[in-house]
Specification:
about 180 residues, 7-stranded antiparallel sheet, Knr4/Smi1-like_sf, Knr4/Smi1-like domain-containing protein
Length: about 180
């Protein structure tokens, strides 16, 4: 099973085309985590707690000048909308954006009727898929109607590392496709 250090080692291997943003200057505190658990009747496991205490939240994206952001109404293969991902969380920062918070994601999950899956903590950009934790179980939801779900086989850090790997794979495909030459006419 992967650790926090394994996750750090993995994302540090990414090249300069990637940007990472965290709330690590003011991550969650144990007091904030315990209050959230009590208020929402959610059990946060030790790996997630360690992540919250270290990072608070995290955004990992390919830089926009490298991976052009799709425009509204663009028709593209779905993976081309996946230029990054969000790991939602908790923070001691009073100005922590609501859209990045567990509380907001819990409400969003209720709107999708996914509350039985637990706390939404992850979303791939472009709404490609979301992930939830419920104590030690990680569920991935590929559509908001609950018709395409799977249980992830691994811990929290295994999941995050696999998502860094997925993003890097898609980035390489995007770069390779972008630099292909059109056949002469």
């Amino acid at each position: 099973m992967a650790t926090l250090q394994d996750f750090k080692n993995r994302y540090e291997k990414l090249n300069d085309d990637f940007m990472i943003f965290t709330s690590k200057k003011q991550p969650a505190t144990l007091e904030i985590i315990r209050k959230y658990e009590r208020d929402k009747a959610i059990k946060i496991n030790k790996n997630v707690e360690e992540f919250l205490l270290t990072f608070g939240s995290l955004i990992l994206e390919v830089k926009e000048e490298i991976w052009k952001r799709p425009e509204e109404f663009d028709v593209l293969p779905s993976w081309k909308f996946g230029y990054g991902f969000f790991v939602y969380g908790l923070s001691a920062d009073e100005n922590f954006p609501d859209w990045l918070s567990y509380e907001e994601k819990l409400l969003e999950a209720e709107n999708y009727e996914a509350t039985s899956l637990g706390q939404m903590f992850f979303k791939r950009s472009g709404n490609l898929y979301r992930a939830y934790f419920n104590d030690e179980t990680i569920s991935i939801e590929f559509d908001k109607y609950g018709e395409d779900r799977e249980i992830f086989d691994g811990n929290f850090y295994d999941f995050l590392i696999s998502e860094v790997n997925n993003l890097e794979k898609d980035y390489l495909e995007y770069i390779n496709e972008k630099h292909k030459k059109s056949p002469p006419k």
